[in-house]
Design brief:
Radius of gyration: 17 Å
Structural class: alpha+beta
Protein name: 8-oxo-dGTP pyrophosphatase MutT (NUDIX family)
InterPro entries: NUDIX_hydrolase-like_dom_sf, NUDIX_hydrolase_dom, NUDT19
Strand content: 25-35%
Keywords: Hydrolase, Magnesium, Manganese, Metal-binding
Domain Nudix hydrolase: 26-210
Cofactor: Mg(2+); Mn(2+)
Shape: globular
Amino acid sequence: MSEAPGQAYLPNAAMLAAQGGYPALRPRDAATLLLLRRDQGKVQVLSGRRSGSHKFMPGVYVFPGGRRDPTDSRIVVSGTLAEAIARKLAYKSGPRMTQARMRALAVAAIRETYEEAGIAIGLPHGKLEAALPFTPNLSPLRLVGRAITPPGRSRRFDTRFFALFADEVNVDLTGLRPSAELDALEWVNVDEIGDLKMPGITLAILADIGAMLKISPELTVDLPVPFYYMRSGKFIREEI
């Protein structure tokens, strides 16, 4: 079987094991969003440089995202996640993966994109005391990947990678701005992985997205998506 595009960018498993040594930690839920822009026949994805003050992965380019907060499940949303996405989110996630937790993961990806890059995915509501100044719209989201931080790390996350096309929901890109979390923002051509400093798993997901777009330019929700994790010192890639 030929190697999937993303596997070429995975970090060296033996080196990761040698650099480990932290106590076994349960991965925490996290979510990230690949905001896609179609421009002159190319698809670009928004990436941001993590502030150099961060203890975790400073100075590298990533997609907007972060941990799922307890309050994410209580934020009012519009739209629903497609059934195919719910099935993928439930895969090997145990009985605690409820509909509310799935919705909270999607909200986390949208909320972090707003906090880190200034982009609102949803309609403004005018409620002054709400957690967000807009109602997150879940309906355009696709699930395009999942990755669990290898054991032995000082921080571990079980990250779900969502994606959407900006032109499908009339996202106002004029609001795009750096933040304390991401101090520089760049649009990266998906099929031309450049010289930006990115973690291996970020490059792997980006390469996988490029392959998926060749199969389905609209990223239909029923496409198989990669799931990366380590077992017995080796990287495993499943399709879910």
